Amino acid sequence: MKPKPNQAQEDIMIKDLQRVFQLNDLQAREILNQAQWNLQKATNYVLDLQKSGSKIEEQFKKYITNGQSVIDENGIISFCKDLGIDIMDPVILYISYIFKSETMGNYTKFDFLYGFTLLKIQSTSDLKRELKRLRDELNNNREILKSVYKYCFDFAKKKNRKDIDLPIAQGLWDTLLTNTFPIMKKFMNYVGTIEEKDVKPISRDTYYMVWEFCVQIGEDLAKYDYKTGAWPTFIDGFYFYLFPNHKQ
Amino acid sequence: MSGIILNQRFQKVEEMCLEHARILKQNLFAGVQFKLPKQIMELNSEILNLSSEWSRSFPKNAHSQQNAKNDGMEDKLINLYKQCLNEFVTDLYEQFKETQNQKDITLQLVAKHYHDYKAYSYWLYKIFYHLDSSTLSTVGADLHSLSLEAIQKGYFKEGKEKLFSTILDVLLESRQQEILLDKKVKSLCELFIVMDAKSVRLKYEREQSMYDYICLNFQETEKSYRDNFENKFIDETKKFYKVQISERKNLGAIEFVRWALKVIQLEEQMSLESYSKSFDKIKNSLNQLFVKEQAQRLSTTTVQYLLSVDGITQLGELYNLISREKDCVKFIAEEFTVYFLSQVRQVNQNISDQSKQQSQGQNKQVLAENLCNQILEIMEKAKDIIKTQMQNSSKLIQAYQNAFTTAFNEVDEAPFYVALFADMLIRSDKGINEIETDIKLNKIFTLFQLLYQRDKFLQHHQKFLSQRLLNQINQNLNLEKNLLQKFKGETQTNVLAQLQNMVNDIQQSLRFISDQKIHKNQKFELSVYLLSFGCWPIGKIQDEIIPPLQMINSLSLYEQIYQEKNNGRILQWTFNYGSGEINYKIQNDKYYFSVTTLQIISFLQFNQEDQLTIQQIYDRTQINQIDLENSLIPFICNKILQRQKQDLDTFSDKNEIIKLNLVFNNKQKRIKMLPHSKMQPKRERKLGELTQEEKEYEEQLIKQREFVVDSQLVRTMKSKKTIKHFDLLAQCQQMITIFKPDVKFVKKRIENLIERGYIKRDEVDCNLYHYLN
Questions:
Q1: What is the per-residue burial (b if ≥16 Cβ within 10 Å, else e) of B654-688?
Q2: Closest-CA residue of chain B to A212
Q3: In 3-state terms, what secondary structure has residue B712?
Q4: Which chain A residues have a beta carbon less than 8 Å from that of B748?
Q5: pLDDT at A169
Q6: β-strand B589-596 against B670-672: which pairing, if any?
Q7: Chain-chain contact of A206 with B751 (C-beta, under 8 angstroms)
């Protein structure tokens, strides 16, 4: 039994796989993990995907315009139309999560190949049928919602940056959290009151901690410890927005 | 010998013994000095003989029972002893019973009884002492204990209520009269102290003619003492004083304090005198009544009042009372804090009002002086009180520090005012009187210690230091160094090293000058300060300025000499600093002008020509417009130069001609012409908004602070590896003394460090951080 590879070795294997196939880091990591970090196994898996995925490829081609290698925003709009969902519908984020898609606004061929295969579907109409199940999963399974939420940070983030702009974070919070956590309604009000000059990007830590805030505190704001708690200052801002007289 | 003969002898002994006992008793009652008759010694030996002969003839063996008829001689003798005792006790008790509730009589009587009984027991013991060892084995108590037992059973047991109330009555009289009265009460108390003791000795002090029971094991008497005396006594005492205190509820606080202290002193004295065993408990009870229950009330009504009317000694009295319970000092401390907080805040308010009325730079000095001196005065007063009246109590010192630190930092510009005040003090110091200088330094340092924003203070201090070092003719380098050394002991920062370098620069420059004597035989006398780059708040070094010919040689000579000693260093001339003197000859008069270097450079251009356009001056010197205006307009205002436009106009027209006033004449031959705000064109400056320079300083400060907090955070994380948020926060705030970082600031830095990958949050516990290498 081969010893588990360390971080550096993993990175090398991911790069190796990417030299042969067009897939992103997340997908490479997941596939290699499944293959117990056996490069050969992983390669075979991908080859199988490609072999059996001709119908999926056709679906993919439906949404690209001539010459492009990836589905762009227009393609996604028509993709959503075919699925019968709004582009702001949270389920599309879930779908992207399953695809392990890298960037918001694009789908690659491998996204489709990989994702459709995982979902055991071949076409968009198949996917449409699965939507109800997916929606239910997203709404009822906290763990899934958490994973999707965390995933969306990297999904929405630009490659050259470590953080995301406030409006984008706003969108994600609105889409993913307001339905499950009632406190988020007030939170969105708070974000709306932030003045132009004070608007700063949201760091990963702050973004993750918003989730923790919803889960640990939620409506029960008496539990919120602004003096000695390790909450980010952005969330402290929300607390002082609700209770201005607690500021010293 | 047969038992019968022995018994006969016993009868004789019995008779004699009882006889002598009675005589002894009568003598004691009469208070007559007595002598032991010779027969006592005979009795003694006879008893011994009886006892030993009996035991020889009738040895006790383990199995034999005591025959009731054939009583052991020893038992008989012991009973005889007991009988003597009991007879005496009975007599005593009869007398005791007869006393009514006349406390004085009872007191006298009991005291005498006790004395007499002890005396009697002692002498009786002398007769019977051979029996001592055997009584212990047969009856379980030695002779002295038996004597104590006798009086306990026959006198004390019945009479203890009466005895107790007598004691109370006597002490009540003491309390009412507020002096210690009868000392005889001590003997009554002694009765209570020794009762129930199983093992005692009776001692005789020949000189004082006193007899005492000495308890060998105090634990035996503890319970009896407590139940019969101590607890009841303390209860009565408490009851008594509770009433007394409530009667005095409307008494003024200081009167109450004085009365309380007197009472306490009296009670303690009484206790030490008569029942010192209970001293601690009594002290605690008194403290409970007079201090613990009164401290808060007394403090809240008096401390602030007394402070405001300078009732210093009364404060001392109050402190004397309340400090009996260490914990209660906190009430005084709280009031202390409140008072001085408000005092300082008043000063702050005054200063703030004054500053709103004026906005000129000049008056800032007055404000700074007022603020600092007033606060120092108040601090002095407070410190003095704590030292002289409150024994430097640590709680008071803490309150003192809290009050002044809190209030002083409420002044927005406190760091600036302290720096300005320091500047004024240092400039006025002639360096002659060491003690005075020390006082000044301590004043500055005291205020420095109060400040939170020490880095801001040092920023200002650096600017003032630079001015002092560069412009003063007699710099006081030692004073500056001493002051910096004091700061160094209080806080850590790189800026202090810079400041020290500044002083060193000047010191070395002066040394270099005297070493080299550069200005010997020069037409242009030059002395140079060599400044280390980066330590001085200089701003832009304008080395593009072209000095006139007369200067160039001296400058080059200096550079040459310096480079010989210090090869490879880069030197730049900062013409925008420095000052000097121009000798001006015109119309057969000689004038001396005190000017800046830039003024020298620009005015000396007129050596070549009598008139120049502004453009020409600029071309030849490269001095910018504003500096040129500041430099030359004073000449214009003093009529040395003339211009086409108005005196105070700007130099915006580059073709304007400036020319020498060839008929210049002034009675004063020495003229100071340094750039002055009254001799400048009017320049726009918005009030309230920070200038560019101030903005830069502010930004620099914030960056420095971020760095300080970051390094402290990283240092802590490196050593602890894993730490809770709260602890990290506390550690950070504790270790940083150069300013006071608030929670939000530290949190933001922690977030920043998380983003930069120095720290990460624990996955399970959001309040836990891990250090990432």
A1: eebebebbeebeeeeeebebebeeebbbeeeeeee
A2: B766
A3: helix
A4: 233
A5: 94
A6: parallel
A7: yes
Residue given tokens 């306990």 in the structure block? B152
Judge if ipTM > 0.95.
no
Report the mean per-residue pLDDT for chain A: 90
pTM of the model: 0.79
At A156 the pLDDT is: 93
B747 vs B741: CA distance, rounded Å: 10
Q: Letter for the amino acid at B306?
A: L
Q: How far is A162 from chain B (nearest CA, A)?
A: 8
DSSP element (H, E) containing B594: strand B589-596
Strand partners, B461: none
d(CA B646, CA B312): 65
Q: Give all strands (DSSP E) within B116-254, no chain letters.
A: 200-205, 210-215
End-to-end CA distance of chain B: 106
**B273 half-sphere exposure, CB direction, 13 A CA radius:** 17
pLDDT 10s digits, A40-71 = 999 999 998 888 888 888 888 888 887 788 88
pLDDT of residue B70: 43
pLDDT digits (tens, 9 = 90+) for B479-505: 999 999 999 998 888 889 999 999 999
Residues of chain B with pLDDT under 70: 1-3, 32-40, 59-71, 101, 133-139, 181-182, 359-362, 472-474, 516-524, 685-690
Residues 6+ apart with CB under 8 A from B302: B253, B254, B314, B318
Provide the token pair at B631: 């430099």
What is the rounded distance in angstroms from the CA atom of residue A119 to the CA atom of residue A95? 10
CB contact under 8 A, A233 and B744: yes
**Element housing B642 (H / E):** strand B641-643
Q: CA A35, CA A19: separation in Å to the nearest integer?
A: 18
Residue showing tokens 């009565």: B236
Q: How far is CA A233 from CA A18, A205, B60, B205, B760, in A?
A: 40, 11, 97, 83, 16
- Is residue B417 within 8 Å of B368, Cβ to Cβ? yes
CA A84 to CA A86: how far, in whole Å? 7
**DSSP H helical segments within chain A, as ranges?**
7-20, 25-34, 39-52, 54-63, 73-83, 90-99, 109-119, 124-140, 142-156, 166-172, 183-193, 204-212, 233-242
Q: Do B766 and A236 touch (CB under 8 A)?
A: no
Residue with tokens 């290699």: A32
Nearest CA in chain B to A211: B766
Among candidate residues B569, B567, B606, the one with its CA nearest the CA of residue B585: B606
Helix/strand/coil (H/E/C) assignment for every residue in A70-108:
CECHHHHHHHHHHHCCCCCCHHHHHHHHHHCCCCCCCEC
What would the two tokens of residue B9 be?
A: 């002898």
Cα–chain center distance at A159: 14
**For residue B761, which phi and psi values (nearest 5 degrees)?**
-80, 150
Kindly identify which residue of chain A lies nearest to residue B723, measuring between CA atoms: A230
Q: Which long-range contacts (CB under 8 A, 24 or more apart) does A164-168 make?
A: A164/A201, A164/A202, A164/A207, A165/A201, A165/A202, A166/A191, A166/A194, A166/A199, A166/A200, A166/A201, A166/A202
- A-proximal residues of B, 592-631, CB under 8 Å: none
A202 pLDDT above the threshold of 80:
yes
